[in-house]
Amino acid sequence: MIRLFTPPRLGSAPSAPRLLLLSLLFSAQVGLAQTKNPVVESILQEATQNSQLETLAHELMDQIGPRLVGSPQMQQANDWAVAKYKGWGISARNEKWGEWRGWQRGLSHIDMVAPWVKSLEGMQLAWSPSTKGKGVTAETITLPETVTDSLAFQKWLPTVKGKFVLISMPQPTGRPDYNWQEFATKESFEKMKTQRTAQTEAWRNKMTKMGYTTRTLPVALEKAGAAGVVMSNWSNGFGVNKIFSAYTKKIPTVDIALEDYGLLYRLTASGQKPKISVQAESKEKGTVPTFNTIAEMKGSEKPDEYVVLSAHFDSWDGGTGATDNGTGTLVMMEAMRILKKVYPNPKRTILVGHWGSEEQGLNGSRSFVEDHPEIVSKIQAVFNQDNGTGRVANLGGSGFLHSYEYLNRWLAPVPEAIRSHIQTNFPGSPAGGGSDHSSFVAAGAPAFSLSSLSWSYGTYTWHTNRDTYDKIVFDDVRSNAILTAILAYMASEDPTTTPRDRSVLPANQRTGQPGIWPPQTKPTRKGGLD
User: Fold this and answer.
1) Mean pLDDT to the nearest integer, 1-29
2) Which domains occur in the chain, in start order?
């Protein structure tokens, strides 16, 4: 719960004049609380009676799709957002911040063709090389069961030539832990966890002895002549795998769902010599420019001061980037649309940034901060949303000493049905990474994360093949758009400029050294090319 007002502590019975003063103050507060703010009322009405969230979500997630940095869909999304803003009468532009390896996903089709025929659930990883033509068919091989040292692994390495190499640990169960907790006996559940822990530790030790990591191993296999790399990055939920990037340059790297990967692994380990056929089409697009989409409503009284709405626009492309960060994008776009309609002449400039390449290291927002010190120095507040579809449940002060005072003031007119779910933490601590608000915090600007309820985000939708339109909870996203619009309005109208005093950070528990504010980090402006 939010604590907006704490009355003074009285040491003795108040005098009559003091009672009268307290009574007048209380009456004024009640009267103020009962006075409806017409802008807030209009925000609520527009958000609930004329919401555009479902339409925006369908256009972005279903029609454009995933937004991998450097892909044609990312450029399409940038152009779509500019057109949307201009259609609402809001000035918008695409601002170049760097260049990236251009790549376009194509058809992925993976089949087991021996010892029997089965189409497998899987897909190529981002930036995987194309198989070209009719694809590649080859036998599968597992990593050696035991490895004594790196020299022994180097002697084994030539055996991968012409084969697909299974490089992920086979999971002992495809059931998430909550399913075991519901149905298994306590003894059975504990036995499974013990076995899984031992298996995981043995696999980790083997990788260490081999002398490779999950990043460097595919490159070594490629150099040894493997036909391709097969992995399964399970996300601990039914049917869910995380889909990241390939590190190979000439051979395909594919991810296969736990169930089918386990089948292949067991058949390979028992000597059945399964074969798979992989068709992984993709197109290299050379070096392409990358952009942030920026839109703004100019301030009428203080145009050189800024309230910034923030969400990253890019995504991984296992799904369609619905909750990471389609929902954050929708919140900011809908908030801007509403504000343009009900608050068209803000006191301060309200700027929204849809950042590129957050997934590779906050590159879009870090570039904006580096390129626009004149804006960063005049920021009233940044509100960033980037952790799923749930309604906002936490708001911290990011280490700014006086954040409790102005954030609580801005939260005051937010409807109780929304505000009552939000826990605050002041002054909080500055984020060193994680999402784009930290790019601004590092530069000293008061920037805050609108942190959401989980909805199983980490397991089911964060960077996974299941991050799709159907996972969006529109009631919660609508609540967040209302909250964001009200916060932006209140921050714009505030007669005072937010102070930037930083709290003293606690000492590092490991080193005993004083806490240090996160430093400003340079962005990667040319990526994916090495």
Assistant:
1) 37
2) 38-102+287-493 (3.40.630.10), 116-273 (3.50.30.30)
